[in-house]
């Protein structure tokens, strides 16, 4: 399923030369493992410059089956979404890795690829137990301010930043349909989920029924967690994996419904990564098992 390589070294050197100039000579190319929907390579140059190569190759996507065949699957995949959200967030003062260049010509390859800023640092979760409490608290206040700024971007239509069309149904219907599909998949592979399938399905409808109509939506990351906030060496936060960002519901009174759907989605997602030979099998297994426990606990 997975491609072993994408651009040849000569192709990549030509690309880097065209974007940055003749003084950028590649010394090393290393694939960064861990992503489920795009392939990432780290590129080092002789002049000390480092950047990333992002490749959106559907054949290397662990969720290609859903993207291609399931209309209810909420896709956060594609160079168009990455480019769109990079520009949109930058316009609102929210940091993401800089997009240096995007090649979506498809003249030589069947996939899109881009050169993107390398942000040297680590995930926000590395600072949970940071020894310097003052630095830690200041960092998480900066993260809070950044997210508040993003969530204060609002409008009356949900979904992507460039889609202003009024939708036929409410935004939570999208989550319910996706949760039902995820539950169906998980029930085939996990005993606890299969035993509680009917109760879990009823819980989806119970939580959805409690939601009151509204039409104000905030811009959200879509997959926000401490692993999607990168912290540079200056202790400044940067959002990564932003393809799924868009306008959606941010009402605390609805969070129970969204949390339940989130658990079901990650049970299914973890299982699919497990079944499709994701490199970190222990992570995939733990992801599915943890969210299965969370979903069943919400039944009580």
Commentary on this structure:
The longest helix has 21 residues, at 255-275. 41% of the residues lie in helices and 17% in strands. It is an alpha+beta fold and 300 residues long. The protein has helices at 9-20, 64-69, 79-91, 133-151, 171-187, 191-195, 197-209, 255-275, 281-297; strands spanning 26-32, 39-45, 50-56, 99-103, 112-117, 121-123, 154-155, 217-220, 229-232, 237-239, 246-248. It is built from nine helices and eleven strands.
Topology of helices and strands:
Blueprint: H1 9-20, E1 26-32, E2 39-45, E3 50-56, H2 64-69, H3 79-91, E4 99-103, E5 112-117, E6 121-123, H4 133-151, E7 154-155, H5 171-187, H6 191-195, H7 197-209, E8 217-220, E9 229-232, E10 237-239, E11 246-248, H8 255-275, H9 281-297
Antiparallel strand pairs: 1-2, 2-3, 3-5, 4-5, 6-9, 7-8, 8-11, 9-10
Which terms summarize this structure?
300 residues, Phosphorylase Kinase, domain 1, Aminoglycoside 3'-phosphotransferase, Chain: A, domain 2, 2 domains, 5-stranded antiparallel β-sheet
Structure summarized in a few sentences:
With 300 residues, the protein is an alpha+beta fold. Helix content is 41%, strand content 17%. Helix 5 packs antiparallel against helix 7, helix 5 crosses helix 8 and helix 8 runs antiparallel to helix 9.
